[in-house]
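Example record

Each entry pairs one chain with its bound ligand, phosphoenolpyruvate.
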Amino acid sequence: RRAHYAALKNKPSITKDGVDITLLHNSGLVADLPMLDDTGALGVGLFRTELQFMIASRLPRLPEQMQLYAEAMEIAGDRPVVFRLLDIGGDKVLPYLRSAQEENPAMGYRSIRLGLDRPGLLRTQIRALLMAANGRPLKILVPMVTETFEFLQTRMVVQKEIERLRRAGKPTPSRLELGAMVEVPSLLFELDQLLPEADFVSIGSNDLVQFLTASDRANPRVSKNYDPIALPRLRAIRMVVEAAKRYNIPITMCGELAGKPLEALALMAIGMTRLSMGPASIGPIKEMVLNLELKPIQQSVGAALSEGADGVTIRELLKEWIDKQN
Ligand code: PEP
Ligand code: MG
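Structure tokens for the complex follow.
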């Protein structure tokens, strides 16, 4: 299998009917990055910067953060890396960061909420990213955006740091793109405010599905009861995909769904063409893409989404397609 997938790595991932599907890695440590050469992925769609913080025994300082980001960019070379700002809190606890006991940490003081409330932490990270870029293009992703103003506030912090570098005569990124994660359901109903402000968006299906279904992603007793590609969830995802197309901004799926064949098929069927996943999923997903006639699946899933699927689930419908192909 491994040799088989390795043989696919230089093939462009295009469906039989000519739809280009961009495959990217989820990553978070420098050790993951050389894997880009093994899988042939086009870049890193999600670099989880909190990993460095989680394995450390104290808060990583600016030079340490900068070194990690610079190394990641170095190894990626021309391939883009999307650095997600710290997503700590919730299930990602830092033992050395004092935090109050919370009844619902996933919905608590976490991620960009914490970042904007303690701007020292956020400023340091943004400064480290800008300095690591050292004049190269830079992509930054904001996690857990709940309201557009949080995204705008983050943009202001970035802007201030760029001006600070400029005043000091240091190089600033040749191009800076700031993106928002869509993983809090409220944002689905504010896309017309958010999208004109964002350079790109990325859907985090792990949190989005957790919050849409009010089922803890870490608790299989509840989460396994709700199919993430059932009609209501897939409609929600399609809403974001279509809005991003209207505003002509790139959209990626970076949650776990993107790396599972059937789920990835559902995503492609609703027009998602950028998928970010664990490196081990690239081979299997690429193989599926190369053998795929996407148009008829798009039509059949599209019909199911608008008319309801007559007792058949999207999952069953897609399984039938896959069985027909084999
Ligand atoms: C997600 O929520 O889907 C996501 C990609 O982020 P994380 O799993 O790190 O919360
Ligand atoms: Mg998330």
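The longest strand covers residues 176-182.
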